[in-house]
Known about the structure:
The chain has 663 residues and is of the alpha+beta class. The chain has six domains: 6-105, Rossmann fold (3-Layer(aba) Sandwich), CATH 3.40.50.20; 122-132 and 208-333, D-amino Acid Aminotransferase, Chain A, domain 1 (2-Layer Sandwich); 134-203, ATP-grasp fold, A domain (Dna Ligase, domain 1), CATH 3.30.1490; 334-445, D-amino Acid Aminotransferase, Chain A, domain 1 (2-Layer Sandwich); 459-574, Glycoprotein, Type 4 Pilin (2-Layer Sandwich); 583-659, CATH 2.40.50.100. 26% of the residues lie in helices and 35% in strands. The strands form ten sheets. It has an eight-stranded antiparallel β-sheet, sandwiched between helices. The longest helix has 19 residues, at 176-194.
Amino acid sequence: MTIFHKVLVANRGEIAIRIFRSIHDMGLQSVAVYSEAENDALHVSEANESVCIGPANASASYLSIEAIITAAQQTNSDAIHPGYGFLSENPDLAEACAKHGIKFIGPSATAIRAMGNKANARSLMLESGVPCVPGYEGQERDPAALTKCAKEIGFPLLVKATMGGGGRAMAAAHSPDEFVGIVEQVRAEATNLFGSDEVILERLVQQPRHVEVQIFADSHGNVVSLGERECTVQRRRQKVIEEAPCSSLQPETRELMEAAAVRAAKAIKYEGAGTVEFLLDEDGSFYFLEMNTRIQVEHPVTEMVTGIDLIALQLKVAAGETLPPAEDLRQINGHAMEARIYAEDPSREFLPQVGTISTWLPPKGDGVRVDCGVQSGQTMTPYYDPLVAKIITHGATRDLARKRLARALRECVVLGVPTNRQYIQSILEHPDFIADQIDTNFIETRCMPSSNESDAPPAPAIGLAAVLFSLHPGRSWDGWTSTGPSQWPMQLLVEEGSDCILQLRVTQLAARRFHITSQTGDADETTEFEFALLRHQGPMFEIRTDKVSQVAHATCADNRLHLQVAGRNLAITDTTYEIASGDDESAQSGHVAAAMAGQVVEVIANIGDVVAAGDPLLVIEAMKLAHKITAPIAGTVTALQVQVGKQVQNRMHLATIEPSTSD
């Protein structure tokens, strides 16, 4: 059977590179697309050809069906793979491909639409005998009638956008009193995100696990299951760690769940790779959640335990090949885990971060796979998802896969932007995670990020920063002056959680050997230690602190020193020669600064408005998420430095509020 000649990947980042790998392994040609913000992105250089498809804004580039089809025609591509996200579950792209004689690597537009609408999907699953959570998927919109339906279902319940996905535009209502307000909230968010305010209601399953089944279907009516994945560890219904298989799933439940997933696929005459997601209750009952009509972010864990290249299988099925027998495909070996490293700051409510990745050193070793779309020197922009890389590990047991993932994260070096790397490590070391005692509320109830605000930075980090900042031409490095050892004061601003000011006195004892005294802010307690810089190569430094040696990494980017030392990442600025700005006074002055880089999408306040502390002033959108900027104090808005559409940088001045005066 003749397979395709050239495949265009309508995506970016790590998933585009992942798909290119399989395309090239099969001897096919690849085409990358990119926006004007990503002409030097790694995925562009990984393809045989590349086409710029528009401006940085995703709606004018990666989400433009016209631009994607035009790029395919310009390069004579005979197939388009959508990856995940962006247009991957847009039936209009599938129809446009068919119209122009291009093969869409995915299911039919009809199948995508059937599962893209949650109300329709529930109805189809109920008709097919797939268990669903008790709920309501009708067309009723009257608040009183909906409240009556909600009471019949029982509280607590979830209000979900029918066109939603990815855990967005849904919220829990715990009582009739808050129900109508929750419905209005979800409808508003759904309209903004998906262009539809339709919602469904589902009973909220308490403390469930999230288990999904990977299915594959060909054009000859064959549907097979490739096992399940555990996706229970989530934050705000966004998956954080994924595993395969689900260790807690009983064999009989697994058999029933896989059979239900196969029935779901057959009900819509599905073709290609798909995932049927379920909620697993404590009593072993399971309920249909949704079906993702595309390849999943977490597909590598299935590849690791089955040995199957799922992307290659997608291409073969799309070309009309028949699936091998189920028993040949479904061979589960060992256990796999995946963690996603994001450019986000867990200490600041996981706000996405932008900036230059000055150093990226992926981990290596047995059982470790890294899927990434970045390289050293690449800029994380505010326009797209902040995913840096996926780290996937495999082992004979769950515990070995976990330990390998923890080790890989320790070895992974990413400098220049804050990430969730350390936070993921804390999850992997949590006793309940180790014991597999988890549910979808695990993070919110047992493993939220702990603040390091009261913890002084580790001495090795202080020492390395002090020494590297001292390497400017105006400072003596021979270790001596006419009156004795060379000494100098230093002030460092450490950005970790809340900003921390360190007052240092550095005494040079010999070449590359120092005595350092450190004091945090106005605290009376001081720390003293000896520090030596033994050697360095590029961003790698071998250091010794009080006779203990270790390896650290450091680079300078965005006028800050970025360190990965003693298991922690810090950004440190030398403020020795800056004029004091009166931090306590400025904190109460009403100065409003951006907490992240992004684009202003809404300005709520006006000059002259009287606001209370916490009132919304404006909304910044960064990496597909909207963030409200609120008033830090009560007072009157006296200045607004932004307007809708303006790009702002982290810490940029946005507004000024004159504090209220009390009698």
